[in-house]
Amino acid sequence: MDDSDRIPGDSADGVRPARARGRAKGAGTGARVGPLSPVWAAVPSVLGLVLAVPTAVEAFGTAADAREPGYLVPLLFYLALLAGGYSLGRLAQMSLAAARWDVVAQDGVPSRRVMGAHSMHATWVAGVGGSLLLMGALGMWSALDGGISGLEPGFSMIVAGAVTGLAGMALGRWTTDRWQQHVDHDERLQKKARERRLSDPLGRIREASRDSRQDSGPSS
């Protein structure tokens, strides 16, 4: 797993703010499975797989003339859980991490890449919800047509798909806004800290020296 799918609060140094990483360098962190671990996010998808296999065997093992309307609906629900369960769980974890983040205690914010990782999962969850909604619409069409496609009556999939899609988009938007609030807070804190340093004559000299080194860059 790369840093883009790590959650702030994991033990990995890659999700810590640069200032905090600098102070924590050399301090070992053992591997652990905490509440924000992707292991827990994978549980819904594993459950979907466990439920989908016997349901598929039963659905497709039934003779065509013995199939009843809606015989594919449970299977599609389990497949949706398999496809979107991990992303939904990961999105919930990332939203929780954003809600719990303390800019002062963590001495800053994670990288933009880490803070934006939830958008991929939000998009995927919305896509799975949209697929369910489409299958439900086809089921309603089939029911009105009088045929048996296995998707009838479709209403339950329309509701589930709409709720899932809207939840993914809303949670993704909320998480983005929450991280932006942390970024704004961090910028205000840095500005105040800089103003305090500049109020001291020695602080102004150190600040000017730091700015000079940053402008010159590393020597070749």
Automatic annotation (TrEMBL):
**What ranges does the record list as Basic and acidic residues composition bias?**
190-214
Superkingdom of the organism of origin: Bacteria
**Residue ranges crossing the lipid bilayer per the database entry:** 39-57, 69-88, 122-142, 154-172
Region described as Disordered: 1-31, 190-220
Keyword field:
Membrane, Transmembrane, Transmembrane helix
Could you confirm whether the keyword Membrane appears in this record?
A: yes
Name of the molecule in the record: Uncharacterized protein
What does the record give as the organism's lineage?
Bacteria, Bacillati, Actinomycetota, Actinomycetes, Micrococcales
